[in-house]
Amino acid sequence: MTFFTAHGICYIVYWALMGQMSQTLKWSRSEISNVAGEISLLAGLGLWATTFPRIRRKMFELFFYTHYLYIVFVVFFVFHVGFTYACYMLPGFYLFLVDRYLRFLQSRRHVRLLSARILPAAGQTLELSFSKSPGLKYSPTSVLFLNVPGISKLQWHPFTVTSNSSLETDELSVVIKGEGKWTKKLYEMVSSSAAADHHFDVSVEGPYGPASTDFLRHETLVMISGGSGIAPFISIIRDLIFTSSHLQLKTPRLILISSFKTTADLAMLHLLLPITAASSAATANLRLTIEAYITREKQAAATSPFHNNNVRTKWFKPSPTHAPISPILGPTASWLWLAAVVSSSFLAFLVIIGILTGYYIYPEGKKHGEAGFPMALTAFLYMLVLCACVAAASSGAFLWNKRKSIRNVEGATPTAGGSPAGGGAVYEMTEELESLPLRTIEEATNLHYGVRPNLRKLLVEYCTEGGSTGVMVSGPAGLRHEAAAICSSGLADDSLQFESISFSW
């Protein structure tokens, strides 16, 4: 954007000095179109301006919708320079176009909402569990985009996936904290008694995530969070539960240092472990220590905060039209399907534009550049053919895999670990099952009131136990910078290794 902006400003200054400001309104039939370039530049500047972290986090909807200006940015860029010159960016943009259209196809269908764990109203936090196909695999710290048409048909919001695809093969869970209008409205809808009167229509895109970090290379893994920043670590803890219990591998000692405003916010710790009996039994080998800091309360209550279990679980009876979350191109050989989509669509594109160019744009006997065929119209036809080929190939592969997945689950009734059977759309439980992971969490937690964690002291203390110590931070930028500075200070003979993973949008 720096080069594009400098390019545009220099030309405008040049035209002003030469008395040729009319050039700014020039849309040439067969040469460079200045107007198209100016429109593209303005769209790019609007897109770029909303990417600053302060705007992106405070006004996420503005950031999200403004980024659809990429369509204007690219289309008018092609009009500006012509399709032939724009081909230098074709490989990257072509792959993006395939990916974007496949994600669009995924988001058109509603998914099955199985259950919701609802934390006390003070924190307005809940965990939604969706049905998923066993073939859907994803890494810890992945993100899922949600759309609830009952709130808004246009708004999509990203949330951290807390489940583990190997430990919970039929479920995918996300944690949502009521911090804005959309999330607060969702909390009210799910927690209200009126929720029993209708099914929840939810669409998703994803999950998306980085290649999984090799957590096993550390002897100790320290995870530092503030408030709802604990969410990304839930999936890491569950991933290590699976590694320890099913793969029988040694896992690092886990240290979770988390800050909360009030005791009520400790309810977030209920979500660290899954509620299924099999998964709860698997936590026996987990070496977990939790240092919980309650910053706005000076002393502990008369009773343990873990004994006031106000967490409710609602089980939803899914609609027959709702489907499990599944891989867009099927659970097996998805890379082969993707390669087939990319290669077949691009081959069709080359063949069609070859025919279009030879018989319509530059017919026989007419040299390139002779005809008065508008450059913008040529670019438009090429882009139209490009999009049509991508849509046809992607839709074909998607519908073929969708038909196979429907055949595999036809007649099956989804069950969520321990979901009760019976009539009605919603079930509420104060399940004995919930107490299994709760006891494990209470035993592992050290509570500190009225103070903030002394990260320097804690990190040095844990790294002196020997071996490599990995440090991960999910929270404000200041918290991440503080932890990174401590790790690089050399206080622990370089045994502290800061894991640079971004958890924020």
TrEMBL record:
- Please tell me whether the keyword Iron is annotated for this protein: no
* Record domain FAD-binding FR-type: where: 106-214
Q: Which InterPro entries match?
A: FAD-bd_8, FAD-bd_FR_type, Fe3_Rdtase_TM_dom, Fe_red_NAD-bd_6, FNR_nucleotide-bd, RBOH/FRE
**Please, which domain of life does this record's source organism belong to?**
Eukaryota
Predominant location: membrane
What membrane topology is annotated for this entry?
Multi-pass membrane protein
Keywords associated with the record: Membrane, Oxidoreductase, Transmembrane, Transmembrane helix
Q: Where in the cell is it found?
A: Membrane
Give the signal sequence positions.
none
Transmembrane stretches in the record are 32-50, 85-102, 335-361, 373-400
Q: Which Pfam families match?
A: FAD_binding_8, Ferric_reduct, NAD_binding_6
- GO cellular component: a single term: plasma membrane
Q: Which GO terms describe its molecular function?
A: ferric-chelate reductase activity
* Family annotation (PANTHER family): FERRIC REDUCTION OXIDASE 2 (PTHR11972:SF41), NADPH OXIDASE (PTHR11972)
State the protein's name. Answer: FAD-binding FR-type domain-containing protein
UniProt organism field = Linum tenue
